[in-house]
Amino acid sequence: MRENKNYKLLSYQSVAKQLNNITYTNYFYRLMLIARSLFKWNNLPNGINEKWIERYLFSEGSCVFYKDPIIGYMVAKIGNTGPLNYYDEPTTIRPYATNYLYENKNTDDQLMNGEDCVIIRNNADCIPTFPMIQLYSADLTNIKRTIDTNIEGQKMPIIIKCTDKQKLSLKQAIKQKQDNEPVIYGDKNLNTEDINVLKTDTPIVFDKLQTQKTNVLNECLTFLGINNANTDKRERLVTNEVDSNNEMIQINSDVMLETRKQACKEINKMFGLNISVERRNDLKIDLIESDEDIELKEGDDI
Q1: pTM over cut 0.85
Q2: Which domain holds residue 171?
Q3: Does 241 reside within a domain?
Q4: Which of 43, 70, 179, 283 has its CA 20 to 30 A from that of 212?
Q5: Percent of the chain with pLDDT over 70
Q6: Extended strands (E) in the chain
């Protein structure tokens, strides 16, 4: 068998960095899938999938709905825009996507905003969800890797400083302890005063860190408008706390839902369609109890 000269053993530092990246990627993709599965779009025209709408809103903060003269109804990213009106809204838009750029000789490759197309907004200011999910993923990664480090620290052995002559006797004594011997016998010449024991005890804090991870996750779910009061089982929440949490969840949900509803209203009026959007309430979120598991009942293709 030929020796692979390119084969290298990874250092502990390299493995740690890889685990950091893997953990971050894990949290980011899971939270991203949730964020892009929050809304259900109904009666979309053929050729338009809701996953593209939510993907653009997640990463870009907005997208444009229009009718291409050849392809038909489309949603795309918003490219170069024309002059702004008095409300800082673009007067003209040129849509674009991967391997696609809107072209129409009759309109000088521009769509008139409010006449030929409708802007779909993630929220009132077209702020994408992407950077928020990045932040929460980084926080969760930091806590999770600290938990891993704390657990690893529980395996650190004690350090015994002794002479070579004492080493064998101490090994036998430790073996007797591991074998559950009721009495440990030592040589009469064993001088315990020359033996120094250094304890490398690592305090157990991963339970507190797990609680903090739950708090960060709940904050993220609240931001996404997802009910998370039941995921915290450490203590019974009083009614006022539950009501306050539910109110914040509803506010965050409405921030994204209302702009989507407004877009549907404008699209239906402009193109004679019957598109609607609603909150998807059948998502099952269970990151804490099974640590990482998320089940998406709908929108799995996103």
Answers
A1: no
A2: 160-200
A3: no
A4: 283
A5: 78
A6: 39-42, 62-68, 72-81, 92-97, 100-101, 111-112, 117-121, 159-161, 196-198, 276-279, 284-285, 294-295
